[in-house]
Amino acid sequence: MERAAVVSGRRSPSVPEYNISTSTLSFDQHFTTTAEGILLLAEIVCGMLVWILVGGTEYFQLSALCWVMFVAILCWVQTVFLFIIYLTGAHKRISQIPWTTLSLCLNCSAAALYLVTAVVDALSVNQAIKGRHNYNCWAASAFFAFLTTLCYAGSSYLSYRAWKTTEEEQ
Length: 170
Prior knowledge:
Blueprint: H1 2-14, H2 35-55, H3 63-88, H4 90-93, H5 99-124, H6 133-169
GO molecular function, one term: structural constituent of myelin sheath
Keywords: Membrane, Transmembrane, Transmembrane helix
Protein name: CKLF-like MARVEL transmembrane domain containing 8b
């Protein structure tokens, strides 16, 4: 027993003690019921459908559909990260980042990119033979791309309102 006390006594000076806070991120269960949360979920689901429908075909034969895949996956990943940040309340803990401005920029750029992508996707449907697998998937992906564009436009509007409110308070 004496030896354990001696050993622990020898280790304590060599190991510095840090004041480590074990704060955990909180789960905001009400976020998914807000308009912003619902739109983010819709963007994730519809955006995922776009890249799954295009990715399940021979899209690499058309360079325009490679663009559709790039934008769909890029925006989807950004939206998933933003959703996780808002869902866990990390945006409240990291106050150095202007979240309303960041959200506004991401949503507006995603809406613009997705509008171009939806048009490109819709025009690419003509390259497939009607009734075949590629045609059906590309037509469905064009529909979901336009739906995703509307979701991003709605999120842009909500982000603009939040940004404007934040700017007026300062």
